[in-house]
Amino acid sequence: MFEHMEKSTDTHTTILADGEPEVRRYRIFNFDFDSRPLTLSDEPGRDWSEESRAIWEQSRKNIIASIRSDYGENGLTEKIDNFRDFGAKPFSIVAHHNVMFDHVRTAFIGGGYYAALTGACALGERILNHMMLDLRDHFKATPEYKKVYRKSSFDRWRQMIHTLVAWGVLLPEVSNDFLELERLRNRSIHFTADTATRLREDALCAIGYLKRILEGQFAGFGLQPWFISGTMGAGFIKKEWETHPFVSHYYCAKSCLVGPFHSLEHTDAGWQYVDYPSYHELCGLTELTDDQFKDLFNDRDPACLAQRDKNPIL
Fold it and tell me: What tens digit of pLDDT does each residue of 20-63 get?
């Protein structure tokens, strides 16, 4: 939708009065990303038109100007290289990690490689702590709960990872990335003589693990089991996952419950959803499976979408 979005989108999350939850699904729209580094990594293809080359060159100049403005003139060439090598920020839902991830990026771009390295490792631990503290009360009946319910913070990564996997919160591939980040964290923070010789390399490695964690566990859309697969250009939560503690806390609480014929409009107040107050009155619908919702959303006629001057703004 956008090449660069530093802040969350501004949407309202009020559910319609009559609800019709079996017809509606939570749509993900509050996310953060920045794909500008990809432009710096690309080169014009041989078959590009002159117009395409001119657009690419202007985009590249604009990105460099923004780097100069955001991070300063001194050492600009190195900062441009670091911005490019850091890579794109992942499409991540807006949660507690976004601002601190920006701090890691700022440190790396500015050449503060050890700060970026340790910051990425510390943020990994903080994410684990947040998930543990945010979600543990939902798992009081589990054997793991008695080991974690008293603490206000945790520093044993493997205990947190094991517990969150047992609760069905952490995805398996994400847990592996956390374990790799923990190994790098221990080697970087506890004294190792060669750490100082590979700061940039290790910082990029830690950042890579952290990116995969955010892309895997906090993605705005993708192949995660809680997303309805195949919806075009948008991410929606499966009905059966709406009550899962992780999905409910991190996704549904910050998303809007909409029907398949809703529309999205930009106003002075930001992006807002417009939807029909009743799908039962509109077309007799009282419930939809996830596949039926997907088909209606993908195949909808633009003329049938809810309109601002006729329907409520959510």
Answer: 889 999 999 888 889 899 988 888 888 899 999 999 999 999 99
Q: pLDDT at residue 264 above 60?
A: yes
The per-residue pLDDT for range 211-225, each reduced to its tens digit, is 999 999 999 989 999
pLDDT at residue 103 tops 90: yes
Residues 6+ apart with CB under 8 A from 102: 6
Per-residue pLDDT, averaged over 10-16, amounts to 40
Q: Note whether 105 and 89 are within 8 A (CB).
A: yes
What amino acid is encoded at 61 in this protein? K
Domain ranges (residues) in the chain: 4-14+16-28+224-304, 97-217
Nearest-10 Cα torsion for 115, 116, 122, 124: 180
CA torsion sign, 97 to 102 to 108 to 111? negative
Q: How many other CB atoms are found less than 10 A from the CB of residue 7? A: 9
| DSSP per-residue string spanning the chain | --SEE-S------PPPTT--TTT-EEEE--EEEE-HHHHHH----TT--HHHHHHHHHHHHHHHHHHHHHH-STTHHHHHHHHHHH-PEEEEESSTTHHHHHHHHHHHHTT-HHHHHHHHHHHHHHHHHHHHHHHGGGGTTSTTGGGTSS-S----HHHHHHHHHHTT-S-HHHHHHHHHHHHHHHHHHS--GGGGGSHHHHHHHHHHHHHHHHHHHSBSSSS-TTBPTT-SSSEEB-GGGTTSHHHHHHTGGGSEEE-TT-EEEEETTEEEEE--S-HHHHH--S---HHHHHHHHHT--GGGS--TTTS-B-
- As assigned by CATH, the class of the 97-217 domain is mainly alpha
Taking 80 as the threshold, does the pLDDT of residue 1 lie above it? no
Of 307, 233, 249, the C-alpha closest to 241 is 249
